[in-house]
Amino acid sequence: MLFSRDCIIFACANSGTSFFAGFIIFTILGHMAEVQGVDIKDVAAGGPGLAFIAYPKAVSLMPGAPIWAILFFLMLILLGLDSQFVGVEGVISAVVDQWPNLLRRGYRKEIFIGIVCILNFFIGLSMVSRGGMYVFQLFDYYSGSKIILFIAFFECIAIAWIYGVRRFYDNLEMMLGFRINPYMMVSWTVLSPIFCMCVFIMSVVNYSELDYKRPTKPLYKFPTWAVGIGWGMAAFAAIWIPLMILYRFYERGISRETITYLITPQGLKDHQLRPQDKKEGTSADKYRTSNPPPYQEKGTANEGFQSNSTLDNTKL
């Protein structure tokens, strides 16, 4: 139950921090508006730079301002650093799991991690130049908002409706040692897909071309070529879903059997069995389909484990 407790604490702390940060920002903005004699909307423009206006002003009014300023900017560095852990690890884990025989040998994984980090570093340099805020706005508007909802919708569909929500529920029980709240099944199958798709549709309906409200300059409208680059980044993130579907159809041909095959989990491993099946000694072969996938990997760790077990039984 420690897992559930930690998740609840994390969710409450995350939401509470957002509310608390909002109180601080608007309190300071109200103070600045009162001192300057202007409306609060004219004090500072919204966006990622708002925190660099409100919080430094707040700490400058506190006793021991240099110490608080150091702690504030150190906090920003740590927030950005641990956010990168999630993004980088997601890419690395997916690629390594896809080609384990290639990347799980020697120091290949470490070399691959270094290459990914170096590429991200050079991409990030474009956002700290004189025009970096324009690049950041382009990335954030097209790659960091709407398209995430689109991908999250298909992730929910793949887990809950194709892999099977009950199988996934049993997998979590096997890993955690207890059954989580059944509410999560409803969330995976119904609530999350509906919310993701509704918000995505509303964002598409209310779409407007990107502009940037600069603090001391007129409103900047992004040119057509920049908007095209933004849509290209969004399409590059989402196009892999239909491309993989078309590729699987190309492998097996378009037919009802192919559709059934593509929406049925194939080749379950022993670690994907339900806990009650493991207790009963059920083999994973029970859950395998009659038509195995044509691209099964040979010489896997499971096969080696089975062969060693067979050899030990023969010796006994």
TrEMBL record:
The record, for PROSITE patterns, names:
NA_NEUROTRAN_SYMP_3
**Composition bias, Basic and acidic residues:** 271-288
Gene Ontology terms: cellular component: plasma membrane
Q: How does it sit in the membrane?
A: Multi-pass membrane protein
Mind listing the UniProt keywords for this protein, alphabetically? Answer: Membrane, Metal-binding, Sodium, Transmembrane, Transmembrane helix, Transport
Q: Where in the cell is it found?
A: Membrane
- For the region Disordered, what residue ranges are annotated? 271-316
Which chain regions cross the lipid bilayer? 7-29, 65-81, 111-135, 147-165, 186-205, 225-247
Q: Which residues are Na(+)-binding?
A: N14, L79, D82, S83
UniProt KW Metal-binding keyword: yes
Its recorded name reads: Sodium-and chloride-dependent GABA transporter 2
Q: Which organism is it from?
A: Magallana gigas
